[in-house]
Specification:
The chain has one domain (5-202): YjeF N-terminal domain (Rossmann fold), CATH 3.40.50. By secondary structure, the chain is an alpha/beta fold. The protein has helices at 8-22, 26-43, 60-73, 92-103, 136-147, 193-196; strands spanning 5-6, 52-56, 79-83, 108-109, 120-124, 151-155, 177-181, 184-185, 198-202. Strand 2 (52-56), helix 3 and strand 3 form a beta-alpha-beta unit. Bound molecules: ligand LP7C6HRI and potassium ion. InterPro entries: YjeF_N_dom (IPR004443), YjeF_N_dom_sf (IPR036652), YJEFN_prot_NAXE-like (IPR032976).
């Protein structure tokens, strides 16, 4: 039986158990995570998908974001990817998703002049891997995303929120909706509602060891 709320540790253990013991490839988990996010974007009327920006960093949260961008793109939707961080540091799964986005020639940029030009923004910057206060270009990007009129969809954790404590590490995304994988996170309390927005738990086939 899987607990309804995970700590970061439990999320990582469940992820590792599913991949290494159950044998479901991490790429499958990433695809299921992306499908859950893309489905919510396409069925929730709060999200106007006329012009979507997916902001991705180089961890697996970014990989989820890149897969979301591709899923929207193949539906004929107008999608742009803003890639943050050093691509050379990207995880294996995120490198795979970058390659797929490039196959489809999805626009991938490293700067955005006007975030207000977008009707929906997807936050694929940091998930449970947030390890220190957000600074520099990452902080500026989060602040520009929050300042835009677009509704924000956060993937797994609103970036900048510490998923165990609900603490804001420097600055954090203010999402309309967060689609979180496998279980709510400990830090998703009433106090962090301005950052998480409405929380949806996606069953992506990740369960705790039993
Ligand atoms: N739970 C599941 O079963 C699944 C989760 N998925 C997604 O994977 C992320 C976790 O991915 P991970 O690579 O561990 O880390 P993140 O992408 O969250 O980000 C960490 C990344 O960013 C760097 N970093 C951390 N803090 C900072 C900072 N303050 N400034 C700059 N850079 C920072 C760090 O070095 C890492 O590179 C999870 O949230 C889900 O979205 C799977 O895709 C599907 C299954
Ligand atoms: K995120």
């Amino acid at each position: 039986m899987t607990k309804p709320v995970f700590s970061i540790q439990e999320a990582r253990e469940a992820d590792a158990y599913t991949i290494n013991e159950v044998g479901i490839p991490s790429a499958v988990l990433m695809e299921r995570a992306a499908l859950a996010v893309a489905n919510e974007l396409q069925t929730n009327e709060a999200f106007d998908l006329s012009k979507t920006l997916v902001v991705a960093a180089t961890g697996n949260n970014g990989g989820d974001g890149l897969a979301v961008a591709r899923l929207l793109f193949v539906q004929g939707l107008d999608v742009t990817v803003l890639l943050l961080g050093n691509e050379a540091h990207a995880t294996v799964e995120t490198q795979r998703q970058l390659k797929i986005c490039r196959h489809y020639r999805i626009p991938i940029v490293t700067t955005i002049a006007d975030f207000a030009a977008f009707t929906t923004i997807v936050d694929g910057i940091f998930g449970v891997g947030l390890a220190r206060p957000v600074e520099g270009a990452f902080a500026e990007t989060i602040q520009a995303m929050n300042a835009s009129p677009a509704n924000i969809m956060a993937i797994d954790v609103p970036s900048g929120l510490q998923a165990d404590t609900g603490e804001i590490l420097g600055t954090a995304i203010q999402a309309a909706t967060t689609v979180t994988m496998a279980a709510r996170k400990l830090g998703f309390t009433a106090k962090s509602e301005p950052n998480t927005g409405h929380v949806i738990v996606a069953d992506i086939g990740v369960y705790q060891p039993h």
